């Protein structure tokens, strides 16, 4: 396989996106040259940086762009700036992560006739439909139907997203799941009390985070550790400060996620089943819990529950405070059950759900593109 120069485009700061970094590392290890082009929405990060020998280039939210009311209005500016920046960089293949980078990739392909890879992390229209006006969601779906067929290769994050994107693009795709890197070694049980449940991820109203704070506040011998950013960060910080057994860590660096997961006894992954985005999602936290050997607490009836139940590595519960409380009581009072579920998850990660296996599919895709 001849090495190629790959430009990965993502609409965030790059350094906090675990999937993008893992894919870059895998392709770099396979002999390709990888560079990242991201969007620093805060406007505080350097325009140029480096991660593990791979350059990071960033469009920064500054100047007139900062005066725009929100990211819906900033997106067209981001696309123009990202395109201009990409034209100054050396690359052979453009790899677009998610729909909000695809306009850049398609325009670059038209200009250069070089291959385009579309990496579909989620159904983008489902993800935004609760937070933006319906006409914006409709535009996103139409844009994907127009642009996705122009990709030379398509990657889907899981089988549910694969079904969606193949129908939209009219071509086959490769599933590269966002599994965790599994370190060698035996299963390591958690430490002693208090029984600790962790959640490190996006702080959104659909993630059962505020409800979890209330539930654990009524259980003095249980502890809740939360980390993350976005919409609910200030509310979570304020509520956790009121309780002796809830801790908010703020935004957690990627290299701290797995140690914190291993330090707990269970991982919270309860997503609102009423939202379409959660009916096609497999949260990263499930794979992190598997790799760490910790049981997951997931919402009954969702695809993530089917995965957890099939591998007997967690509990699927109703999306209610009572559902979470009953699960915590059960795992706290039955350490043998928690241990068995954790061991099962670790075995499943070693056997199948690990990044080494997934990254081979990514590298093979580039070999075919070659």
pLDDT below 50 for ≥5 consecutive residues: which ranges?
A: none
| Count of beta strands | 14
- Arithmetic mean of pLDDT: 95
Order of helices and strands: EHEEEHHEHEHHEHEEHEHEHEHEHEHHH
Briefly note the structural class of the backbone. alpha/beta
Strand content: 15-25%
| Distance linking N and C termini | 7 Å
Q: Whole-number radius of gyration?
A: 21 Å
Give a structural overview.
The chain contains 15 helices and 14 strands. The chain has helices spanning 18-29, 64-67, 71-86, 102-112, 124-128, 134-147, 159-169, 209-217, 233-241, 254-263, 284-292, 303-310, 321-333, 335-351, 355-369; strands at 5-9, 33-40, 48-51, 54-60, 93-97, 116-120, 153-156, 174-175, 195-200, 222-227, 246-248, 266-269, 296-299, 314-317. The radius of gyration is 21 Å and the shape is globular. The mean pLDDT is 95.
Q: Topology, pairings included?
A:
Blueprint: E1 5-9, H1 18-29, E2 33-40, E3 48-51, E4 54-60, H2 64-67, H3 71-86, E5 93-97, H4 102-112, E6 116-120, H5 124-128, H6 134-147, E7 153-156, H7 159-169, E8 174-175, E9 195-200, H8 209-217, E10 222-227, H9 233-241, E11 246-248, H10 254-263, E12 266-269, H11 284-292, E13 296-299, H12 303-310, E14 314-317, H13 321-333, H14 335-351, H15 355-369
Parallel strand pairs: 1-2, 1-5, 2-4, 5-6, 6-7, 7-8, 9-10, 9-12, 10-11, 12-13, 13-14
Antiparallel strand pairs: 3-4
Helix pairs in contact: 1-15, 3-4, 8-13, 10-11, 11-14, 13-14
